[in-house]
Amino acid sequence: MQTLAFTFPAAAPPRGRALAGVVASGDLEVLLEPASDARITIEVTTSVEGMERTWAALFARLFAEPTRPAVHLQINDFGATPGVVGLRIAQAFDAVAQED
C-alpha cells in the first residue's frame, strides 16, 4: 500500500462529517471531516503504485479555486478510476453541504 498527501487552500470549514462509498463497492471510500485551518488536506491510501501524478492532476482540477470548505479527506483506494474518485468526493461535499 502507498500513502500520498496533498494540501490546497480552502474557505471556512463545514459543520459536519461525511462518508461516501466503501472500499468493497466501487473500490473507494472518502471520509470527510472539518479541518481546523483554512486548508484542504488529503491523505490517499492506495493499492496502485505509481499514480501520484494522476492523483495530483485530479486534485488540482477539483480544488483549483479555494472556495471549497476546509476539510481533511481520508481516501482509501483499491484501484478506483478518476471518475469514481471525483464522484465520491462530490458526494461527500454534498453531504456536508446539506448539514450546513
TrEMBL record:
Q: Which Pfam families match?
A: ACP
> GO cellular component annotations, sorted alphabetically?
cytoplasm
User: What residues bear O-(phosphoribosyl dephospho-coenzyme A)serine in this entry?
Assistant: 25
* The keyword Chloroplast belongs to this UniProt entry's keyword annotation: no
User: Where can this protein be found?
Assistant: Cytoplasm
Any idea which GO molecular function terms this record carries? acyl carrier activity
Post-translational note:
Covalently binds the prosthetic group of malonate decarboxylase.
Does the keyword field hold Ribonucleoprotein? no
Q: Which UniProt keywords apply?
A: Cytoplasm, Phosphoprotein
Per the entry, what this protein does is:
Subunit of malonate decarboxylase, it is an acyl carrier protein to which acetyl and malonyl thioester residues are bound via a 2'-(5''-phosphoribosyl)-3'-dephospho-CoA prosthetic group and turn over during the catalytic mechanism.
In the record, the note on similarity to other proteins reads:
Belongs to the MdcC family.
The UniProt entry, under HAMAP family, shows: Malonate_deCO2ase_dsu (MF_00710)
What's this protein's name?
A: Malonate decarboxylase acyl carrier protein
Q: Which organism is it from?
A: Dyella marensis
